[in-house]
Amino acid sequence: MTRPLAAPVAHSQTALALLQESLHTPRYSCACSAIDDLVSPAPTSANPAAAVAFVTGAAGDSSATTFTSTGLVQASVLELVGPPGSGKTRTALGYALHTRFNAIAASRDDDDDDDDDDDDDEDDESTSSTGEEVLLVDAEGSLLPSLIHKTATLFAQHTGGDASDVQAALDGLHYQRITDVSLLIALLYSLPAWLEKHPKVTLLILDSLTSHLRPTSLTPQTRTYILAQLHSLIHRLTFQHKLTIILTSALALKLFDPNGEPTTFGGSNKDAEALLIPQLGESWIPVNEGVQFYRIVLYFDLEGERLTKLLAAPGPTRRTKGEFTMDALGPCDHPTSTAFDDVASQNSQI
């Protein structure tokens, strides 16, 4: 049997060093504050700027960092779960495109600064070869290339870009289609070497990973083995490559007895309760090794409104639930939602 992937040992750091690092660590957004706030750390003070100044300088010091820690922190893992049609794939794509267009904008700003500093300095490097890149892994066929291209085009139009921006965004998106479990296993083993050759990739999207890990299509031993490899891989990628990972997975219906123990439909207990739980379970999550893990469920209420709720997080976040809607660009804030009103109220007070 093949030996599992070796996991690195994390170096020890002081609490102050960890906090300073978190304040300057890149964050990833899906351009929807109702979802971004679920993975954003809660302010540690009534005055967020003062809380940051405690770490980086005295209150009122111009060198003190402002509190802008919004979005998914680098080298963390986010699992998006929910029923079909809840928007998991579109939300994951929103993270990918927002990352690429932010990289393009940052590259353009850097080029403008270089021109101001030295008009004679010519730089032929295109925006597609600078900034953060994304690897998209489509395991079910929901993340179609046509959908990616169409959404990128709309995103460019929305941000005032043109066809060159669309091409630059797509040039930084790497696409991989997984059609069966053998290709999934091959991906798990080849990904570290692939990332060594593509060091600009900082975000990994694994869409519909559960489509090849359903209990009905695999033996229990094979499924356990794959989840163990996924566990080791995530630990390795987040620590060695500082890779941010976003997975989308389905929900599974399971029966539990009154004591919370799993049971079956053929069981004798008539008081069993059917619950929807994440289909991947918990064994693949390397939380005991220090990985920051978030789990968000996307779902509908009885009136058909889109809702989101935080199920797991490494610490307090700005909020634990919210309302959102979906347009051609992906998830966005609902103008009449309480989440939108709360964010606006908070911004007016800061």
Describe the structure.
By secondary structure, this protein is of the alpha/beta class. It has a single domain, classed as P-loop containing nucleotide triphosphate hydrolases (Rossmann fold, 3-Layer(aba) Sandwich), CATH 3.40.50.300. Helices cover 36% and strands 21% of the residues. A 9-stranded mixed beta sheet has the order 5-4-6-7-3-11-12-13-14, with helices on both faces. Helix 5 (145-158) crosses helix 6 (163-171). The radius of gyration is 22 Å and the shape is globular. The termini are far apart. 34% of the residues are buried. Mean pLDDT is 80; it is low at 1-10, 46-68, 120-129, 337-341 and 343-350. It is found in: Nucleus. Keywords: ATP-binding, DNA damage, DNA repair, Nucleotide-binding, Nucleus. It comes from Microbotryum saponariae. One of its GO terms (biological process) is meiotic DNA recombinase assembly. Residues 109-126 have a biased composition (Acidic residues).
